[in-house]
């Protein structure tokens, strides 16, 4: 009998790709998403890849009554928790929005997991918990420095909530995946990143600029202490990241201990600058991209990239897809958005919302 996994935020960018990876690994998937930053038609894309339509519940993870009804109905054995706001810049402008949503949704989930004896949780954390690391590459022993944004702080506090819950004796097994910068799309171009409005992330802004939707790309900051003056990040293909979540869940399900909490970096182990990403996109897709330099953006860390040895040792996972592949897949997804009429669907949904 297939094990049923609840994926919160499962129609979002990382969530949808993880649903596909879970289905391919033989799991049954239930999705919860409030569609605040995603679209219901992503379900069709998931089904086109896997041949299986996951069960979908539209609702908010902060709504305890709604979530309780779901736990009553479904025999869930594990949860992968993505549902959270994630834009660094927006969190600086609207901190209370981020603290309310990101922390309350986790608390509701942990309470219901305890009530319904659901013991396995993979938590979507972030490399932002490290702040600006003192040493690179950053490994899991690095100190947790003051967060550079309210978004980053919600991830730090969420990890503390989980740790304290496990230490208090709540019978849950949790892996927090501290991942770096997911980019790309499924190679089928059936699912990918679908930002509502102006993208907050680099690669969808690049692809939208290349498609003529945005007049030009702004690179925030050219005077950082890096080789070309632009920020450095560890860019990981979203399918590598999705597969890491499946490996993490597999690991938790194998553990005999009544409770545990651990955290793992999920990255490629290599840093690329923003300018390098732009130039690589131009090369692999043979497209010239209009861009300009703009002032630094509040909350941005200068440079960060992972040491991911622990993920290999603990989970048997290692990133296998290149930056070139991720940027080709991202562009093919942008092309598919137009060919399949998805852009029009998105614009209509934005107009009606």
From TrEMBL:
Q: What domain of life?
A: Bacteria
User: Which InterPro entries does the annotation name?
Assistant: NAD(P)-bd_dom, NAD(P)-bd_dom_sf, UDP_G4E
Q: In which pathway does it act?
A: Carbohydrate metabolism; galactose metabolism
Where does the signal peptide begin and end?
none
Q: What is this protein called?
A: UDP-glucose 4-epimerase
Q: Which GO terms describe its molecular function?
A: UDP-glucose 4-epimerase activity
First-level EC class: isomerase
Sequence similarity: Belongs to the NAD(P)-dependent epimerase/dehydratase family.
Q: Give the EC number.
A: 5.1.3.2
Gene3D superfamilies, sorted: NAD(P)-binding Rossmann-like Domain (3.40.50.720), UDP-galactose 4-epimerase, domain 1 (3.90.25.10)
Pfam family membership, one: GDP_Man_Dehyd
Q: How does it assemble?
A: Homodimer.
> Which cofactors go with this protein?
NAD(+)
């Amino acid at each position: 009998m297939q094990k049923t996994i609840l994926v919160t935020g499962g129609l979002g960018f990382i969530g949808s790709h993880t649903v596909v990876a879970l289905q391919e690994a033989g799991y049954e998937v239930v999705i919860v998403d409030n569609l605040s930053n995603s679209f219901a038609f992503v379900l069709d894309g998931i089904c086109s890849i896997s041949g299986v339509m996951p069960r979908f519940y539209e609702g908010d993870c902060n709504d305890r009554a709604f979530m309780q009804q779901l736990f009553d109905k479904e025999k869930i054995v594990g949860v992968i928790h993505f549902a959270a706001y994630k834009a660094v810049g927006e969190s600086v402008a609207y901190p209370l929005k981020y603290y309310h949503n990101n922390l309350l949704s986790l608390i509701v989930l942990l309470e219901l997991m305890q009530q319904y004896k659901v013991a396995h949780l993979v938590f979507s954390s972030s490399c932002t918990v490290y702040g600006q690391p003192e040493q690179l590459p950053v490994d899991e022993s690095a100190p947790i420095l003051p967060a550079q944004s309210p978004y980053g702080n919600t991830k730090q506090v969420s990890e503390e909530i989980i740790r304290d819950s496990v230490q208090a004796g709540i019978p849950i097994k949790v892996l927090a995946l501290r991942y770096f910068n997911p980019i790309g799309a499924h190679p089928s171009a059936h699912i990918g990143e679908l930002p509502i409005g102006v993208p907050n992330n680099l690669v969808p802004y690049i692809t939208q600029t290349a498609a003529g939707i945005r007049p030009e790309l702004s690179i925030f900051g050219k005077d950082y202490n890096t080789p070309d003056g632009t920020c450095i990040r560890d860019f990981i293909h979203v399918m590598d990241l999705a597969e890491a979540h499946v490996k993490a869940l597999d690991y938790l399900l194998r553990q005999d201990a009544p409770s545990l909490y651990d955290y793992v970096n999920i990255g490629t182990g290599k840093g690329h600058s923003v300018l390098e990403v732009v130039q690589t996109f131009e090369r692999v897709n043979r497209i010239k991209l209009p861009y300009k330099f703009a002032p630094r953006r509040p909350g941005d860390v200068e440079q960060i990239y992972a040491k991911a040895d622990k993920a290999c040792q603990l989970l048997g996972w290692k990133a296998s897809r290149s930056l070139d592949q991720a940027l080709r897949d991202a562009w093919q997804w942008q092309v598919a958005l137009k060919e399949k009429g998805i852009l029009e669907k998105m614009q209509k949904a934005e107009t009606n919302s």
